[in-house]
Amino acid sequence: MSTTYNGGSCFNMLGIFAYTGNAGQWVAQGYAWPTIYGSPITLNTWTHISWTFSLTDGYRLYINGVYYAT
Fold first, then answer.
1. 35 neighbors 24 (Cβ within 8 angstroms)
2. Cross-referenced InterPro entries, in alphabetical order (predicted)?
3. Is the pTM of this model over 0.70?
4. Which end of the chain is more exposed for a tag (fewer CB within 10 A), N or C?
C-alpha cells in the first residue's frame, strides 16, 4: 500500500462492499473496473479469500478455496 500520491489513479484490488449496517460482500476489482462481486459475508466466521490473474483466465475470485467467479 502506498502512502504517497503522484496524481495517478487508485483502484481497490480486494475489499468489502457494504450496503448498510453489517451487511456486505467481497469485491475484487482490477483496472478499468472488471468487478467481481463475491458471496455475502458471514459475521464472526473466518473466510479465506484469494484473487488471481492470468492471461488465459483473466481475474478469478476464490472463496474458501472454491472458485467463485471470473
1. no
2. ConA-like_dom_sf
3. no
4. N
Are 28 and 35 in contact by the 8 Å Cβ rule? The answer is yes
What is the residue extent of each domain of the chain? 14-69
Q: Hey, what's the cell of 40?
A: 455475502
DSSP 41: P
CB 30 within 8 A of CB 11: yes
Nearest to 30 by CA among 57, 53, 6: 53
Neighbours of 13 (CB within 10 A): 13
